[in-house]
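Human: Note token order:
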Amino acid sequence: MFISLLSLMIFADRPVDPHSFANTQEVVHDHLDLKFKLDFEAKVIHGTATLRLVYAKPTQQLVLDTRDLIIDRVFEPVSGENLSFELGPEQAYLGRALKIDLGGKQPQQVAISYHSQPQAAALQWLAPSQTTSKKLPFLFTQSQAILARTWIPCMDSPGVRVTFNASVDAPKGIRVIMGAKHTQEDMGKGHFEFAMPYSIPPYLIALAAGELEFKAMSKRTGVYAEPAVVEKAAWEFADAEKMIEATESIYGPYDWERWDILVLPPSFPFGGMENPMLTFATPTVIAGDRSLVSLLAHELAHSWSGNLVTNATWNDFWLNEGTTTYTEARIMEVLLGPDFANMHRALGQQDLRETVQDMSKSPDDTHLFLNLKDRDPDDGMTDIAYEKGANFLTVLEHHFGREKWDAFLKNYFRSNAFSTITTEAFLKQLKEGLFKDHPEDWQKLKVEDWV
């Protein structure tokens, strides 16, 4: 049959993403083969992306997301036959739709040769002077929320998941790492290969390149950093394995094999980014006394909430961050005790109160589930998603008891593993699971009002 069981699973209850041009109701990609050549002088990536396609129904077009990409060629990789394409008009933060004419066929693969531009928002090119050693240039990517499209033509939606293989060529002396298994490394030739066998949304595809050293901390944890920083970072993050074990004791196994941490140069504009297998972290977390490692606990928690189970659209962002902020406090409670965790929660409450006051003129933005149509999804990345979301889950924990709540959340992660979820679906699972024996508590706890 044209629509296979796999197709039915992939397309089941797929919401329309207001932040993607992609025609995901008709076709999606489930695997990417990526080839990159890094040009530090021009601040450009030359790439080829080969997309493996799964169809829900016959379609004449494949529509992808791009922004500031130059498309050189689109073709069928098996036959080499060129496919005609056009780019739609530029739309603010969304970029341009890449519309590929499939010519009446339903090819299993489509390949795109392209190159990025220096202004690509996901690509941060650093001069040697911006690094610690000041010897070699540095590159890192930051694709959340909808910036993967600035360096990879793809269906740039959190509701689409892919596995990928990648090969990367870089100047000699530059070490390339990705959030994936490292399958080949040849520093002499500047050639590196990677494989990500676990499906992730495109915003979690991550790459960094520069003068990097690695130091193992346990069998499944290690740190990458510039040579002058790597030893300090390894000492600061020595409890990484304990963090994994603490989270596993509550919510089940860590499904990503490794958890390595990359310490970026000071220009990294975030505290951390939860790229699977390879957390990106700011060097400011290296305090010398391990006092700021709650940031790492937050990024680790994303290995369950966000990476394993992902918000279907950015309207559902609180499902990523609220659950993660809640889990972060639970990890720190195991490691440092309830007093530390409660202090951590109190600081979050303070941030939340300030955010709510700042939003007095836009009360709709204080909802957990947002309507971000015609808005940049970054507008929804506030303490509402993080702290109000965590508060909601804390209320559920206190009402039902930790044992029952933990059992629900553990099952939630396992039953939805490597998939996406909407707020509506989460509430349905809550009602049919946690509230099943006490449906009257739904109104008592004002669940709908919280969301």
The first strand starts at residue 27 and ends at 39. The chain has a mean pLDDT of 95. The longest helix spans residues 338-358. The two ends are 40 Å apart (CA to CA).
